[in-house]
């Protein structure tokens, strides 16, 4: 345990320092482009046929967002479906497979129900999937940027920026350079010279919280992840952009204390879960405890790095919305699975996905401050803006949509025995597997308990729909929220107001994240992993 | 003349005389009435629409009742247990309704008393202001706005209106509860009369401003009954949250039922039917959704209005009370709010070359006709100094020019001799003299100015007296700051509320008074238009402004302010523009309103936090109870609360869920009392208290109920 604490403290301190440095760069994207960036953006504007940047209101922004996804989806599906004509050695993909792959990479989920080595050639991975891995986190970040503008700035017309321009800037001035840097670092550790593609793939896979693997074994593959150092760098890069965004919000809103305290809160959550998960995984089943060889439950762990780093990776991949795996989830004790499940089900807020992490955090802060902010004797305000009915509509839509999607699809699957039998390996594990899979898909994570049978067609179609809705509908709600917020005038600060960055508020936000997540999923956890653990031991 | 046959007036008047003022309702009579009303309210359809959470409880109740009926017909064993659950769930619905009817109870009783005033009376309609003898008798319901009515001694004023001619002593106790009669007179700020009040002396001619049944009284009845209450913005936002919570838990329970079936199938294969007890699911749903706050939410709002009524303030909308909690700028008129109403003349300062007697005489003559307290005090002081002034009379031909907010001076003026005596603020006198002497460059000489400044520096109000175009001297009017205000203002500052003093006085006087009263800011020489400007400029910066006013010229500012309290003694225009009306006409009450507003919001927040925190404890009790039927082993493992049996625990949780509503009704009605403190510390204390209470009280409550059930088992 001491080893665990020391290592994670060093990890998160380093993360904090590097993110703080990077955050001053990220701040530029919240403002109008300046200097050389402005001239490049102007070039892009001219190319797209517009002379000036046109700010969008929420309807235009949401339309642009959906339209962009629609076009992207069509292009991607076409490319994948006809790839066998273009790329030599590529086998033909069915339309349903093409849709699955396209949607899962477009929505930052990267759920892979196929074996990449068998289905996709290196070329196809490079021209079809790699750009997506840059683009999908960039879209998340763009939407988060519009929300941050909404929170910090005031604009009575409700315009929150131009989607295309923001996306262009984020891709070309952030994702590409950063991907290159991490790719180059990873390539130092590469086993052979031709692994440049693997290095950049591994870099953006984690940096963009994508998680889709070049190999079926994901980052457990020795070519992808040759040494403990690459493992740690990949872990680090998963957290890097979400934390940087959080800290840059503090810079932009001139409320660094809030960002830093939230950072500490999330870190504590993570370390707490790490300790509990490690303990739970070591508890073992009855049979395992009686065996004389028990030191740790090593089933499914990446033995090159040890049980600790495997669990760190499992939790890190679910706390952020990465979902890359270096260890097998199905090998964990059922109770240990509670933690990655909960991490996803609170909406991936412990730093979360690129962009989405901050969004969820803000939504939770909004709900937390709204419920008890009244107790200062004023209608609640957050970042000096009053919370109104409209905001609650958007925020709660964002919060409830995934839960409703998961519940409805789960209810259908669970009440039809044939569905259930087709999907799960062992009846006892069925609930855990299904809840995990659906949460993973809806919240855009992409990791899975691999014993689930992924080759069933209707199941994959269901997942596609969930991925698409789980990603796009909440995003529209965020755009609406951003626009509602930017129209508010700021309430002057006084000794009577509640500050979001004060210690009680931060603790309360933390509690609300935990309690709401827990309240929504306690039945699933009790009847899933807990039941399984108790009945099997 | 009207064709209608009217009953003899004397009989009507007799009936009025005999009208017994209704006794204040006792607590038990309110409770009795509320408990009966609540029962019938429970079945109203309209209720289903505005409270999603409680409506879903009702829906569960109905469906479970039907299911129970079916079970009864087919003879199932668990009938007793199910019956108990069903009755507890119905009780929860009933308590929710009871809280609302209870909150409305006091208002209802008051409304009944008011309704007795709203009966039809006769009215005497005049066709001409001057001819009082020829009138036409009408029923009060036939009176149209704009009509002129004559009301004589002993008669009841039939509808709302404005006094056009005359002044009268009026008994408003039936409407305001204030037993001392008030004077209502034509012109000025005391011209509004309310339908249902009685003229005690003299007679007056009034102009009707509203139809019968639409006036102030009718509005007041609607308000106190709570029948016209609309949700406030914050209430609406909170309802969205509660609706979302209810939806969330509906899905959670649905998911639970599905998973439950899967487990049943695994433990006992082949038994693949819906095996979960619907009553237990119903209990789980009702316990998890935030029933406590949803049930009490309307009551909290109504009680806020009711609490203001105890201060004798009528809230025209509950929105105003909420805004009062939010207000961070209090605009207070100096006179009457910060200082004790009337200023007293304290000293005469003659100008150079003028004797004290001449100066005093000029001031005396300028004020003799002046009925304002200031004018009267000048007369009093002058007589004190020179008793021989008693013989001085105003000569024939002089006409009185009354004080107005625009000219800010008053005096007497004779058209024939062009003689004049004026007194007023230095600027207005200067302007007037410029007009009188037709010399736009005329300025008052520096000696007088320095006098004036000296007076002002001491916090007294200087008035300059002029006679025939010459300045003869100045008068000092002394202001007395109300005791205890300074402390209250500093408390307000702690809560983040700025106090701003508004006065027509010159800035120097204003500064001295402001310093003495301890206000944060002040604006001197404020005209009504300026007042509006100040409010708008604060609102643009995001402040929420509260103010009081009474005059007609305050109406625009009152309409603009977020919280606007008009004095009942004020004009009709002011009363219509405001959203709060103070029946006692005491502007200092604005501070109380802010407290009530804050208490209301805090109560709402506290109960929401309490309600949501309750869920954690309830899960600990409900899950073992529900799971015990599939795997007692698992249920035993997760039941950490010491209960006699899981089934009893379930019953106890439902009982706690229902009774807590009843327990919290007094709190919802009274409001959470909070000590004034800064936002941060208030948040910390309240969150700690209500969060902890919400987290742990269900454990104790459920254990207590469980032992009671166990005892009777």
Provide structural commentary.
The complex is a heterodimer of chains A (537) and B (713). Chain A has a two-stranded antiparallel ribbon. Chain A is an all-alpha fold and 537 residues long. Chain A is globular and about 65 Å long. In chain A, a hairpin with a 2-residue loop joins β1 (381-382) and β2. Chain A has helices spanning 2-26, 35-47, 58-81, 83-86, 95-106, 116-119, 122-152, 163-188, 196-207, 228-252, 256-283, 286-290, 306-319, 338-345, 356-373, 389-415, 417-423, 430-442, 457-486, 503-536; strands at residues 381-382, 385-386. The longest helix of chain A is centred in the last third of the chain and has 34 residues, at 503-536. Chain B starts with 8 loop residues before the first helix and ends with a helix. In chain B, β21, α21 and β22 form a beta-alpha-beta unit. Chain B is elongated, with a radius of gyration of 34 Å. In chain B, the strands form 4 sheets. Chain B has a 7-stranded mixed sheet with strand order 10-22-21-20-11-18-19, sandwiched between helices. Chain B has a 6-stranded antiparallel sheet with strand order 2-1-3-9-4-7, with no helix packed on it. Chain B is of the alpha+beta class. The interface between A and B is large, with 64 and 73 residues.
Could you write a compact summary of the structure shown?
The complex is a heterodimer of chains A (537) and B (713). By secondary structure, chain A is mainly α. In chain A, 67% of the residues lie in helices and 1% in strands.
Which SSEs are present, and which pair or pack?
The complex is a heterodimer of chains A (537) and B (713).
Chain A lengths: L1 H25 L8 H13 L10 H24 L1 H4 L8 H12 L9 H4 L2 H31 L10 H26 L7 H12 L20 H25 L3 H28 L2 H5 L15 H14 L18 H8 L10 H18 L7 E2 L2 E2 L2 H27 L1 H7 L6 H13 L14 H30 L16 H34 L1
Antiparallel strand pairs in A: 1-2
Helix pairs in contact in A: 1-10, 1-11, 2-8, 3-5, 3-19, 5-19, 7-8, 7-9, 7-19, 8-9, 9-10, 10-11, 10-13, 11-13, 11-20, 13-14, 14-20, 15-16, 15-20, 16-18, 16-19, 18-20
Chain B lengths: L8 H10 L8 H15 L3 H6 L1 H23 L4 H37 L6 E5 L8 E5 L8 E4 L9 E5 L1 E5 L1 H4 L5 E4 L6 E2 L4 E4 L2 E5 L7 H10 L7 H35 L10 H11 L2 H20 L2 E3 L2 H9 L2 E5 H5 L5 E7 L5 H12 L5 H13 L12 E4 L7 E6 L5 E5 L1 H12 L8 H12 L3 E7 L2 E9 L6 H10 L3 E5 L4 H11 L3 E3 L4 H13 L4 E5 L5 H6 L2 E5 L4 H6 L2 E3 L7 H38 L4 H7 L7 H25 L8 H34 L1
Helix pairs in contact in B: 2-5, 4-5, 4-9, 5-7, 5-9, 5-10, 5-24, 8-9, 9-22, 9-24, 10-22, 10-24, 11-22, 13-14, 16-18, 22-23, 22-24, 22-25, 24-25
